[in-house]
Amino acid sequence: MVEILQTIILGLALGGVFALMGSGLSLIFGVMQIVNLAHPALIIAGAYIAYWGFTLLGVDPLVMLPVAAFVLAAVGIVLYKLVFEREARSAKYTQMTVLLTFALAMVVEGALGGAFTNTQRVTSPDYATDAFFFGDIFVPKGQLYAGMVSIAIIVALSLFLKYSRFGYAIRATTQNRDAAELLGVNVNFVGMMSFAIGIGLAGAAGSLVSFVFSFFPAKHWEWIAVLMSLVVLGGMGSILGTVLASFMLSVVAAFIGVYFGASWSTMTFFLALFLVLLIRPQGLFGEKPELA
Amino acid sequence: MTMVIDTTTDNTSSVLEARKAHNAKLAAAADKSRATWFPLTILAILLALPALQFVGNYNYLLHLVLFTACYATMASGWNVLGGFTGYISLGHNVFFAIGGYFAGMIFARYGISTIVLAPLAGLVCGAAGFALGQIMLKTRGPSFIISSLALVMIVRILLDHWKFVGGANGVALQANDLSAQWAKLPYYYAFIILAAFTVWACYKIKHSKFGLGLRAISKDEIKAESAGINTRLYKQLAFAISAAFVGMAGAIWGEYLTYIRPNIFTIILVSVYMVLMCILGGKATIAGPVIGAILLIAFNEFFVATLGASEINILATGMIMAICLLFFPLGIVGTLAKHRRLPRILNWD
User: Fold this and answer.
1) How many separate domains does chain B show?
2) For A49-63, what is the mean pLDDT?
3) What is the Cα–Cα distance from A60 to B290, expressed in whole angstroms?
4) Which residues of B touch A118 (CB under 8 A)?
5) A99–B88 CB contact, under 8 Å
6) In a domain, A91, yes or no
7) A290 — pLDDT class (breaks 50, 70, 90)
8) What's the CATH number where A47 sits?
9) What range defines the domain where residue B283 resides?
10) B1 falls within a domain
């Protein structure tokens, strides 16, 4: 019983981080219809910012989080201007963006690998290796803090989307781009800003990742499928769906890891991605098959 | 009354005749602009190339040609699904792995050369492709791309854990007992012939009714369906055929390297190369994948030789892919053909 509870807690703690990693991806797809395969590579870029901030300057990764978020949001604006704006009117746009972001992922991986080599790294502030103990159950502090921060960020994002004027514009563009444009929304600007917010979330997630997982540039391939599984299971474009999917899948993955061995646990995500795309492409909370 | 009917039938038949004459004229013009002698000459030169071994050690050159031929085979195979049919798969190295493991394991156990086994491996991969197509082709566009990526990850984990095929360490295969001077020769000829066969088969497919159907699917699947094409079966067959070519290449590749291991067959860069060669050379053209393979392999060797860093190589590969997609989505052959600048020797279509 204790073991089961412990597994659930460990799964939920990771789920929080996955939720933040996936929500930026979900936002970008919802507004821009871009399937951003470069998202995990950019998360790793964010992780490097936090890592160097901690190693060189001794700044806590949680303090580096806004820095990583803003740097990557700026990168997002540049990428949008350079790459995606000109593609917005092309035929087979979504399919094209998949290939483009895939190429982008390689560029980011190669640049990070060239600059920082492919050594495994992890930021190690005091709390990363510490834990709270409740009787027989332990909760790793690092994962707990990371989970709490990411939930806080996601709640703030949801409130922003729900109540701010710009949030209205983003949601309107998600629902119907043409109608939003007719009603006076500058959809191109909204697209650019939500792309920047999404990539900024990747930076924020990266600084959490830096002390929760060990990372190296080539690791993002594995995360592509992991994050896609969260977003697809949650229903492309639904942030709430992504959050729920990441808690569900990471708890399942934790159980698989305990009972079948740690190297099988990522199989949960890959298999979920494959099966959801084939059986229920609209995901749990999507209404129509968005990705068809 | 009868007269009216007669005139109409006369009219339709004359229209049909005019169209037939027009088609014949187009075909004749295409024949005239096609330089069949060029690929044949290249093939002849490549077949004679190992004679260089009599005058010196050109093993590296042979390796490069063989490597290029391997990728030309795979890219041309990928082109049947990704180019003609328009279903971009980032997971085709799965069939590279299935072919390699199938033939490699039989070779390890019973000592039958993988060159003999290659057609059988092709059949096995074709069957696997047909079965996977049955489920994966329910998705299209981006979903298909992502599900193909998931497939690679799944196969990678399965191979890593499958004890029978050696898990993550793989299986060592026996090298042949030829002297170092001639050791590459069987694989060299196998790959050259395989590549030539694949290119020829792609040409035949493109110009068949089946190929026309595939191209209709890539333009507009719903219209193709309503025009009476069995799109489901066509797509599945295209998947199977492209899997078969990739699988045959994989079969021989394992024995050539003398070991089979998950991280040679299932790394993402293998399938990226297939995709990128087609995009660079020109999707849905015959010469495109071959030109793409030659350019990318040459470029790859150049970077590894001068910079020696695989990270820079990945960066540059990504750059090439992004630039191609943004500025020349039709690829080299497609862009030249669009501007009517395609040299005759590259017109293999």
Assistant:
1) 1
2) 90
3) 52
4) 311
5) yes
6) yes
7) very low
8) 1.10.3470
9) 35-346
10) no
